[in-house]
Design brief:
structural constituent of ribosome, 50s Ribosomal Protein L5, Chain: A, single chain, Large ribosomal subunit protein uL5, about 180 residues, rRNA-binding, about 30% helix, alpha+beta, 5-stranded antiparallel β-sheet
């Protein structure tokens, strides 16, 4: 059973009971997942954007959008409009497939992983997870990389606060750090 099917059949009833929500449509859900990667070195080497776009497309299953600088910063030799990163916004079926791979395959592959810090919520039930090495994703071809780069995964939910967001992601299988003490 996929994560989406599990969410619909088991997670929604469990969440409405635990959070005391009578209306099923008010139960928090994952709205979108944004995967982004800053590529400051693209200012020197234009090919890096293409290489990393390939890798990000493998990871997410979707073609990334090139993000561009909005301001010119002379200290960094950066002009407005120059490409400085990549971003993919996942919704629907692809989003649930990515989330399932993230929870079941990627996070267990992270070295010294003890769970996600619940303090990384933003106050509105959304969470950001940073990866210093993108090689934890099994889709990445290690030999084709010239340098190990990181990326960020932002999970946007319809939760009204961090507690709801945490409960939602816990029920979906997201491993959070256990508080000791």
């Amino acid at each position: 059973m996929t994560l989406l099917q599990t969410y619909r059949s088991e997670t929604i009833p469990a969440l409405s009971k635990e959070l005391s929500i009578a209306n099923v449509h008010m139960v928090p859900k994952v709205k979108k997942i944004i995967v982004n990667m800053g590529l400051g070195e693209a200012l020197k080497d234009k090919k890096i954007i293409d290489k990393m776009a390939e890798q990000l497309a493998l990871i997410t299953g979707q073609k990334p959008k090139v993000t561009r600088a909005t301001k010119s910063i002379s200290a960094f030799k950066l002009r407005a409009g120059m490409p400085i990163g990549l971003k993919v916004t996942l919704r629907g079926k692809r989003m649930y497939e990515f989330l399932e791979r993230l929870i079941k395959i990627v996070l267990p592959r992270v070295r010294d992983f003890r769970g996600i810090n619940a303090g990384t919520f933003d106050g509105h039930g959304n969470i950001s997870i940073g990866f210093s090495e993108m090689i934890v994703f099994p889709e990445v071809n290690f030999e084709s990389l010239d340098k190990i780069r990181g990326l960020e995964v932002v999970i946007v939910t319809t939760a009204t606060d961090d507690k709801q967001g945490k409960v939602l992601l816990e029920k979906m299988g997201m491993p959070f750090q256990k508080h000791t003490g």
